[in-house]
Queue: 3 jobs
Job 1
Amino acid sequence: MLRADVQVRLGTLDLDAEVDVDDGEVVAVVGPNGSGKTTLLRAVAGLQPLDAGRIAVGARVLDDPAAGVFVPTSDRPIGLVFQDHLLFPRLTALDNVAFGLRAQGLRRAEARDRAAGLLDRVGLADQARARPSALSGGQAQRVALARALATEPQVLLLDEPLASLDARTRLRTRAELRRHLATFPGARLLVTHDPVDALVLADRLVVLEDGRVTQSGTTAEVARRPRSAYAAHLVGVNLLRGRASGDRTVRLDGGVDLVVAEPVPAGEVAVAVRPQAVALHRARPEGSARNAWSARVVGLEADHDRVRVEVTAGSAATVVAEVTAAAVADLDLVEGTELWASAKAVDVAVYAL
Amino acid sequence: MTDRRRRGGSRPPWALVPLAAVTLVFLVVPFVALLQRAPWSSLGDRLTDPVVTEALRLSLVSAFAATGLSLVGGVPLAWMLARTDFPGRSLVRAVVILPMVLPPVVGGAALLFAFGRRGLLGGPVYDGTGFLLPFSIWGVIAANTFVALPFLVVTVEAGLRGADRRYEDAAATLGASRWTVFRRVTLPMATPSIVAGAVLCWARALGEFGATVTFAGNLQGRTQTMPLAVFLALESDREAAIALSLVLVAVSLAVLVPLRDRWLAG
């Protein structure tokens, strides 16, 4: 169980974030580059001392400047998988995994024996004598994981675990990593800027922006109700801001009125709409899609057989509609096309900020 | 087509070629001259002359001893300079480099004032124990170390600065103590620079003249190293000087050539 209240000033970064991870839980810290993700991990690992705050694993305090407590990295019950793995280049895969056991004072033969077992568990028994330079990215990642787990830490940290892999390896390695992570009983904290990694690997997300936690919740919660533009982009939904009047209507900043399924209390609200729920029409639509507004196309972006069409929503915002390539052709869409956009009331999520 | 392009890519700008050629000639001609003047017929006798064998033995022993001492003391000093931040670090670095810049004779004189019979440290030591550093093989080794050590420290410091410190972080997260991190991660990463530094250090020690002659004197069989013997022979017996020089060239090549590709090129 990890309890981290991390306050660090480092250059232009002003990090002040609280992250708790229970045993058996996988938490992903997501955020743009420079938001302080890696510094957060380094602080938990003891590679970056806190300026203020407190880090504890279970009942054991690891860093607490106010109390004068600082446990050095080598004495922390924490394993860390680095972004580019950092396998020791002169050691074999086996000796990389055995390194921590040797450092704990185990005899060479015994350390190698246990390391061999760990390599076997990640399916790399046949690569035991390979040097890191001879391993593929995915294999190196698994060796790094086995190495971090060899010393049986209580907390496992992963820094951008899949970022250094190419797209194809990534897909397979992600599934493997999910399986291997599931076998580790302790707390797992990973940082990533990749939404898919976060959604696939984690139970809970912590969104970190500019050194502050802007949202924290289960992946489903964040996906349904993102609280910041970054989080909305991360989970791929349109996030708009508006004002609820107290009944079932919301006026967006910029002047479009939307009807929603459930009554919302009056006040400032966030409105989330998935791109797939936004429909585009040449003429004003009739029938069930009651929320319709006059819009203009401001951008088009192809994504396989789908096209992401950015259209205006009032004068202050835009939303992305995801439609088929055929629909783009039928509607004869180009930048500047005037049309109608609509979203069903049930597809519009409204929540207080 | 691709072949021509590839050759074209490695073709130097024309202006560089004559300059490179002149430089090469300047480096090679002295050795050719040395070989050309070599007394080949009497070489065997000259090389087994006790003056030569004694000088060679002294040179090799003191150069290797100086390299060993420089490694033992210089690697920790390089680590301090590269990895720690202490007040006056730039001053310390300047002091370390000083023997590289100083005329060796000045270094030898400074060593005398420090470790001579009436020197700052040598005086009390002599009064207490009767041990005297100058004018002994220990003096030769001290002079060699003083002059050659900076080459090792500077090279290893650069190597340590260039090494990726995150490997040391990784070792720490695996529970390695600072000493284990140094021994099993830092040292292996710095090995190429340590080898390169040791070779430079050894070569500098082997050729040492000024500090040695000032601090240790020129006592045949006790402190007369090869360079001193060559200098002395030039006055009296030119052919002996050439023979001695050839031995030094051969020894230097024997050490440098095997190391060249593996450690010194990269």
Note: The interface with chain B takes residues 45-47, 72-76, 78-80, 82, 86, 88, 90, 99-100, 103-104, 147-148, 150-151 of chain A (CB under 8 Å).
Job 2
Amino acid sequence: MEKTKKRDSLLHSPGVQSLLASLLCILIGLLVGYLVLLAINPAGAGKAIITIVRNFFYYPSRAAQLKYLGSTLVKTSPLLLCSLSVLFAYKVGLFNIGAAGQYVVGAGASLYCALALDMPWYLCLLAAVAAGALLGALSGILKAYCNVNEVISCIMLNWISLYMVNTLLTNVKEYASPYTLTLASTNPGALIPGLGLGSLFTDNQYVTIAIPLSVLVTVVIWVLLEKTKLGYELKATGFNKDAAQYCGMREKQNIILTMAIAGGLAGMAASLLYLTGFEQWSCTQSAVPAMGFNGIAAAFLGGLNPIGTIFSSYFIQHITSGGAYVDKTMYSSQISDFISALIIYLCGFVLFFKYALNNRLDRRAEREARAAQAAANQEGGER
Amino acid sequence: MALLVQYTLIFASVLVLVALGGCFSEHSGVINIGLEGIMVMGALGGALMLKFLPPETSAFMMVLLTVLAAVTFGAVYSLLLAVAAVSFKADQTIVGTAMNLLGTAAATVFVKAMNTSINPNNVSSTIQYIAAKKAFLVKLGGFEFNWFMLLAAIALACSYVLLYKTRFGLRLMACGEHPQAADSVGINVYKMRYAGVLISGILGGLGGIVYITAGVSEWKFENGVAGFGFLSLAVMIFGQWRPSRIALAALLFGLFRALSNVYTGFDFLMALNLPSSVYNMLPYIISLVVLAFTSGKSRAPRAEGIPYDKGQR
């Protein structure tokens, strides 16, 4: 009796419920992914799904494993910031699907400052934050003053920014390829310093202070949302815009500010990746990079909690990187995108899951209470 | 000039079809952000039919079967939204976004798997339908008439009649305005919303195949449909959720989209010497500007986006 009570109260706690829901989403996502692999080619499906989940353990030697763990982490930090961007806006009742576009302008600004203007890394990073914030604020202004749904305006801006950045970065691309010049050859000062962190990961030169920086930003965002007056006001605006206005909060400014912060986070995300030199921008890209969209998956999978997103971002990046190792003669690496998309879809059901779980628990508690009552009554009658 | 008219009409057809789809879904009370994904699925269905039909099939059968395939794929895929949003009361924005990502990812995985199984060296996500595409086209002098233009016009007329002149349409709109009131007079809100989403799946799927056959003869599924589903949503909002205005809005947007295909044919546009990316951006910029000026007095269905719960008033 005592034991079930304890378990019940544990199940009642929202944190545990979110965790359970996320794990369930992951499990179902992987299961459906496995079924799809089975349908494509039954011979290698089991091996492929294990490859995706194992990611860098694909390499037999410990040194190589560490090195590729480092690479996964390098890509986790931008993803973490993208998911924070989505999360921050969502807490204020806005759906920032424009994280992808803000990420694009962040990449454009930081690379242009680094390659064309020869700026040091911290200025490039600030430029990326500013560019992302500006784009985010634009969606916010359209929402606050012109009543334009932020989802639609964000999508339009995603495409506009992609074409703009492609045009801008064509000025600093390599002569014979569509890729931008490498930072190492053009402006080594724009590379984010490693401070010896790389040596922890078998001399992975791309492991830099970008990784601890992203975790630091996560903590700052958590504090901002949970412990400050501004965070409280922003969340109040999200819950009920009219009530917030009635209480004297400036709801229009709050919407714009929120989108600017969310945009700044996504812009910074891009600089944390491109300023490590891990990737070069391809000026002929015809699709918006997936990082911003994966941020949506990570935000919801993390139960919309900044600390939770650290783990969910890592997981999403882990399977995305793992997808690169599947046997290309049978499957394509997009199977990871497929699984993350499935996970977002399943996250739509989380509310229903919590509702059903609570309902069940409540009904059981009621039944037990009634039984206890009946037992007590009986005892009273006998006496 | 004929080329500009031709491209404007074909892109407007896509926009009309998909925006009407969104219109049905939203009038029933469900926001359909997932139109983009539905278009990809419809495009996939149609492209597969084009690829695998024997070349000696008559043009009529070719058009019919392709349309059927696209419509079926779109409708089945839209069930994902209907089940989540209507039966499970899920957040419609999250589910719609997931459907967009899922559509592109699933189509890419599938097409790549298919291409590699036919030829192990082919890892692209492209389907070609150069010869089969000719079934849709009729040459009228310099103008290439496409049967899909006619289809879009028919869909427009049917939608108008269905929404405003039939019992079904009026009931559907009641469910989007005030579902509780609709329920109180015996309308099954859940059924109506399923119907709305399914119709949007049918029209969205059809729009998808029209889009990927407009002007090109192969499609790379990794790219999805390049935001066209969202452009259609903008057309729907600009058209204030009314079929007749949606048609006008679609023509305007179609014109700007067509410019990026044919601007090289106009001397005065070439004289401006703008980079091609400006023309690529144009439809998106125009739609943002237009939305900024028209969203203020929005006539969106009142109850859209709110899951219907029988127990609530």
Note: Chain A touches chain B through 47 residues (CB under 8 Å).
Job 3
Amino acid sequence: MLDLIWLIPALPLAGFLVLVVAGRRLGEPLAGWLATAMVAASFVVTVGVFLALLGEPEEERAATVELFTWLPAGSLEVSFGFLADPLSITMALFVTGIGALIHLYSIGYMHGDANFSKFFVYLNLFVFSMLCLVLGDNLLMTFLGWEGVGTCSYLLISFWFGNEANASAGKKAFVTNRIGDFGFMLAMFVAFGALGTLQYVTEDGGGVLQRAGELAPVTATAIAGLLFVGAIGKSAQFPLYVWLPDAMAGPTPVSALIHAATMVTSGIYLLTRVNPIIGESFDWLPTTIAWVGAGTALFAATIAVAQHDIKKVLAYSTVSQLGYMFLAVGVGAYVPAVFHMVTHAFFKALLFLGSGSVIHGMHEEQDMRRMGGLRALMPITAVTFIVGWLAISGIPPFAGFWSKDEILLYAFAENPALWVIGLVTAVLTAYYMSRQVFLVFFGRPRFAIAEGGAAADDHGASPTAAITAGAETEAAGAGSTTGHAPAHRPIHVHESPWLMTLPLVVLAGLALVGGAMQLPFNSDVHFLGDWLHPVIGLAENEAEIHVATATKVVLAIVAGVAGLAGIAVAARVYLQRRARAVEPALLEQAWRYDAAISAFVAGPGRSGFEGAAAFDGRIVDGAVDGTATVVRVVADRLRLAQSGYVRSYALGVAVGAVVLVGLFLSRASL
Amino acid sequence: MEVTTSWYLVLGALLFTIGAVGLLVRRNPLVMFMCVELMLNAVNLTFVSFARALDDVAGQVIVFFVLVVAATEVVVGLGIIVAIMRRTPGATADDVASLRG
């Protein structure tokens, strides 16, 4: 079974190739079913490999399948091979599993789209790239996948490229990611320069990770630091997070698959993969990672509090949760990082798909101020969304509680200040997610319902009375076209088809019980930790924590209470309307960080670029043009010598011959 | 008065000078061509004289080479001259100066 690892990425690749050739002919919904089947088959193979690995003794849980030598170039030899070990298979399991669910969902979501089959072409290519990233047995294979998912992300963000905003959001993601990729490439150069190989592990112990101990601290810090720069870009951490909120321009399944569950977690995967190198670095590097993570978590959570777009809230929430994972990596808590990555993949994919179901049911409405009361109209979506909400808010026994609690525990052991930031973020997370749930699913509808006859008014109780004012006058009933703003057209809200609700239900189940992977009660139930031990324990970098059991219990209770507190405050503000909503414009505009970047690039940045352009035009081009001018002027003089008369050439030859003979004679006589 | 090698050498030098001067001063392509032949044969005469005087057959061998080269040169050269004359009857060498800088 272990020899079949190559099948895992090969199946989505086959799906991609078939769809490229025959996608249009297969059409809807056959193209979607084919793509889904390929990813599902890949999931089945992954499960098989997982079980096979589980059957091996712990030390032998790693298998490499080398298909061919990819780059034989002097001393650089890179194989095209796949590595199955606990970490990569954990990643592959949820990439293919959640990927298959989201493919299934997309068949329903993309129904009727003109480019239905093209969507699945990109989606299958993405899954292939992502699997190359996690299964690659060397840094360059990971980089191949890294670039592949970046390309697919770009293609899918600007999938509806007819709209200028979508196209530029794709470009923004691409350009921002280039900055991080540059760090990744430099890290590979340094690693190759220092160790002469890019393989992660080899049988004779010559892999980068096995020989991390040979690295000088400076070199290790350089490699790990540069990879961290790459991770910042891909996993949307401060200061390179700006592309992720804009990436919501893509279709919602893309947001769920790429910008929540899988691609954005590849930075965490990478850092976890190279944990032996981080272990050899100077201490300030992990500390920096932890602080960047904690800072991003808090920063993005504050922004999410004031967003109105249902997907923007989730986007900033993703940035914030990724910050948690970086915090975990920084304090050496690799298992909790992976744990949170998996549980986050469950509940954030669920929330995104749920929001997609809402958007679908509301006929492309994304503004939460024009929603409300959807609980009764979309029962399945509402129930599953509420499960996701409780999971991300850290309410026991949902999955998010266990993973978040574990990260907070390690943060507490490392530095209480980090723990405080994490806890404040947890409160904010519970608050903004509750705000979203209450605005969307509870209260009264702030839009006109086409059927059902319920009066659609809210009597100014909304924090944004201006929007609801129009709804009061709107007559409810089908066919009421009285010249109101399009936003107040009666909407026939409907529950989504089973293709879309089935993945929601499965993911809700996972978000409910996902925490059972790693329970804190005693060391016998650390399933994920034991499973990942061969990878994380390679250099024994997993932080040891010495915290009394009583403290652990208190911390867990505090974390649970923090979540409940956030929900309580949100309920008071958005459900009972007893307090005014605090949604400062500064937060709505994301601390004006985007605006600041735009201002910088448009102001000093533009002057800088123009200066560079002027330097290029005057100095560089001037030197080239000057050389040409000198040659031309000299040649203009010299060409006069060419008269074109045979006699003058003959005279030249004659005079030359005489001079030569004279020269020889005078030489001979000397 | 005995005819020595010097006589032949002086004759060769004279013929060469006549050819060279003719090449420089005349404009008629055909005459210029004949001047070139004159120069070649002046050199041939010199070679033969030295071969005889120094009793070395190599000089005579070179004369054969010169004759062969001269024959091929005549073929190419006359071909070009005929082509020019067809295009512009009565052309002189100075009329063919399109490669002027």
Note: The first strand of chain A starts at residue 63 and ends at 73.
